[in-house]
Amino acid sequence: MGTSSVNSTLASNLATITNPQTFTGVSTYSSDLQSVLSRSEQIAQIPVTALQNDQTTLQNEVTDLGTLQTAVGNMTQALTTLGGLSTGGALTATSTDSHIGATVSGSGTTAGTYTISDVTSLASLSSATMTNGVADPTSTTVAPTGNDTLYLVAGGAPVPITLTSQTNNLDGLEAAINAANAGVTASILTTSQGSYLTMTANQAGATTIQLLTDSSDPTTDLMTMGPTGSLAEFKINGIPASSASNQVTGVIPGVTLSLNSATTSSESATITVAANAAPITTALQNVVTQYNALAKQVGTEFGSSAGPLNGNSVVLEVRDLMRQFAFYTGTGGVGASGVQTLSDLGISMADDTGQMSLDTSVVSSMSSGQLASALSFIGNSTTGLASLASGFSAYSDTTSGLLQQQIGQDQTSEQKLQNQIDALNVSIAASQKTEEAKLEAADALCAQLESQQNMLTSTIQGLNYTLYGASLTNSTGA
Predict the structure, then answer these.
(1) Which among 17, 201, 318, 396 could disulfide-bond with 207, CB atoms 3.0 to 4.6 Å apart, if both were Cys?
(2) 369 close to 375: Cβ distance less than 8 angstroms
(3) CB 33 within 8 A of CB 23
(4) What 3-state DSSP class applies to 90?
(5) Would you list the DSSP string of 388-400?
(6) 182: nearest Cα among 221, 211, 208, 152
(7) pLDDT digits over 428-448, tens only?
(8) pTM assigned to the model
(9) What is the pLDDT of residue 50?
(10) Which of 255, 313, 220, 247 is nearest to 114 (CA)?
(11) Phi and psi (nearest 5°) for 143?
(12) pLDDT digits over 99-139, tens only?
């Protein structure tokens, strides 16, 4: 029997259960027989109802587990974001001159003040364009016929660019130069005067670009230099420095300088790297918000009106994680100098509600040293308060987390129950049909006997009238 046939039979049987059979008899006992059939259906549904109740319980558990998983996941992400602040040290960089920008972009940054001056040049790329254009870039020969070779110079020794009789044209030359990885990028300009090859250096600096027909004779150059590139030249705290990019990194640890234009000899920019409490405050507020949301969700699974996860070990384990977070103590211990507890960051817990609150003025008023202590306490993915994120992640991970494992187990159990329910319904439907057939046969027999009884009664009454001229039935109808 095919799958479609099985599904069709199951659907038919389930329809029988959903729409109970109505007994339509012909005897005077048909209503009694209908009661027998209805009662039989009700009794047969008792184990199905029990399984459906178990199924509903599992479905409610899955719903609450999913909601809890989301809340734990939000707490995980909030702690991860908080731990990420250690990369920039909660420092910001500012500049006094719009010509020079500064941002904190990496680790190792420390507070300090720096002077950028004498930006005499910005980083730029050299370029060169072919002196004479060609009429047809697909067919006009560009390299001397015979050896079909040109020599590319891009700030170093000549690099042979060998073409073939089929590729000795501007299109072939462009492709060959780009394939050579010789430090330039070639392209073709198409104008009313013809097509021209142009090349641009890949790196900033004063790169001389040539395309020679004779590697030993610079007078055979086919190119005309355009703007000659340069490095960014400037001074930091009076010390000369250069960069191949106008986005300068590595000069000040963890800071990117943006050189927007050259400056005059009298211009300078003061770059100040200083502590910034705002990112810490924002991240802490998010942690408090997510903790409170998680606390409310966990709270629904306890007490007189506890949800379907009441007593579930995974809920107790999540609550233990929350306690670890709420009472986390730094390595120095309570009473040590610096930030050692959440209260040192302005976080307090309401005893009656279990909800946290944050006094943002505590962190906002911290000095650079105190902020450094706060960041040390907060830590990252492996140390400090933020390392607790991994514990929460072990529960919230939607692929292999403990909550996801329970969800999967409940869904598997729910499906098994559904299979049992379907099997029972098939069996019940078959039994109903068999019982209905039996009751129809009994009803038909009753109707037949009633008919025979009526016939005998009529016969006896007829004989009474024939023999005695009157019915012998007494006045009471007996």
Answers:
(1) 201
(2) no
(3) yes
(4) coil
(5) GHHHHHHHH-TTT
(6) 152
(7) 877 777 777 777 777 778 777
(8) 0.61
(9) 85
(10) 255
(11) -105, 150
(12) 899 988 877 777 789 999 999 999 999 999 999 999 999 99
